[in-house]
Amino acid sequence: MTRPDVVVVGSGPNGLAAAVTLARANLRVLVLEAEPTVGGGARTLDLGLADGVVHDVCSAVHPMAWASPFFRELDLPARGVELLVPDVSYAQPLPGGRAGIAYRDLDRTVEALGVDGPAWRSLVGGDPSTVVRLALGDKRSVPAVSPRRAAHFGLAVLEQGTRAWDRRFLDDVAPALLTGVAAHAISPMPSFAAAGTALLLGTLAHAEGGWPIPRGGSGALTAALVEDLEAHGGTIRTDHRVRGHADLPVAHCYVFDTTPRTLVEVLGDRLPARTRAALEAFEYGDAAAKVDFVLDGPVPWTVPEVGRAGTVHVGGTRAEMARAEATVASGRHAELPMTLVSDPAVVDERRVVHGRRPLWTYAHVPSGSDVDVTEAVTRHIERFAPGFRDVVVTSRCTPAARLSEHNQNYVDGDISAGRASIRQLFARPTWRFDPYFSGRDGVYLCSASTPPGPGVHGLGGWYAAKRVLREFGITTTPSLAP
Ligand SMILES: Cc1cc2nc3c(=O)[nH]c(=O)nc-3n(C[C@H](O)[C@H](O)[C@H](O)COP(=O)(O)OP(=O)(O)OC[C@H]3O[C@@H](n4cnc5c(N)ncnc54)[C@H](O)[C@@H]3O)c2cc1C
């Protein structure tokens, strides 16, 4: 490639979203990726655990990809990406052989929740597009939603983010079901960050797309992005870690799909002192330790309906989950850590190879933990699925401290690339009005450390790319249609 117009550092969903958008505007785009494989948090790899069985090394379940205006415009189905929708978006097994079930069908969920059905409908039965506009915007523009709906969402966050969170519930199933979703924020609970997460993901669970799992794994999303980028003249160079300024080819602009920490390492004194200090003050949160299992049968959940869920939140009651997250926040390991589980074969039978299937799990642990959580995760699943050990063929744990070995963005195992706190919802990565501009001319950030934050939605990349286009005098965002 002749001298690129834009160099994108990192090929996660945000980096590729930026690259695709810029390449479609006829700019020469070069993506530099540190790892041998592209995709960052959206990679599906053969870990060598069982013949032909592939695993999602990071993300596995994609309500945000389905809801994302970027991926909507890209039109994943037209590109052959099948987003398979489980009838049960997620489930919450509970002590005493009970479970909360979030069907994609809202009415069915409300009915099953009995006395708390109306409360459920009021909290997560609203219009998904309103919630998406509120939660997945650039946190700077005013979202185009009705003030009444915005107020309803805001009040629900206030309620579920404080000790008033049990106020409207009469039973313990619905609150546990909602708290399992809140726990995706990896933060103490109740908190506003966790409540916002619960209301966004909880609402999407009942939207048309539910909590989908791409056929073949998350790598299908990356493959679609790479294909489009290359079709528009973009180039990707893997095994190219950018450690310092010297690793960057000359270009007009640079877009970093990295953490602020990496940006500071690379640019150092080239950043204005105040900006550098603000980026260095960006905080990283608690962590996840991954356990990839290979099973020779489905998980034997006590409540069979749990086995129909694409995602299972293993944490018990609301109080138990809050206690486990508080333990992690205090820097200790929970005896039964909050654990997220997904069996993709629930919707994608092709993931079963020679009778063996992958089971994707991760548990919440303190930042930087080097603990192998295989036994803790196994014990926790056994609590709600006795006999689980008997279907495990093999497993592999990646402790939190080692997550950054395959993705530098996961600082000390923080899979959100920055603490999910109410401050860092907006000061992401700093309070700057233009959150994508690094403070140095021609240099931008687009990763999950920028708005709207973590998740496979490509929106940080898309929003940053729109900003970069202005550097080239391009005022119309290119269409992403196939
Ligand atoms: C275990 C786990 C489970 C998750 N589950 C889900 C889920 O189910 N659904 C969901 O929506 N989200 C999930 N996430 C979060 C999601 O994967 C991330 O929020 C998302 O991938 C962020 O995208 P990104 O483009 O900002 O960064 P990333 O996807 O993290 O990509 C960053 C890329 O930049 C590269 N890079 C970093 N530094 C350099 C450098 N110096 N030089 C060159 N390249 C560099 C990295 O190698 C990487 O490829 C999960 C994450 C993890 C780790």
From TrEMBL:
Xref: Gene3D superfamilies: FAD/NAD(P)-binding domain
Pfam families (alphabetical): Amino_oxidase (PF01593)
Domain Amine oxidase: 15-243
Purpose of the protein: Probable oxidoreductase that may play a role as regulator of mitochondrial function.
Subunit structure: Interacts with COX5B; this interaction may contribute to localize PYROXD2 to the inner face of the inner mitochondrial membrane.
PANTHER family xrefs: DEHYDROGENASE-RELATED, PHYTOENE DEHYDROGENASE
Protein name: Pyridine nucleotide-disulfide oxidoreductase domain-containing protein 2
Organism from which the protein derives: Cellulomonas fengjieae
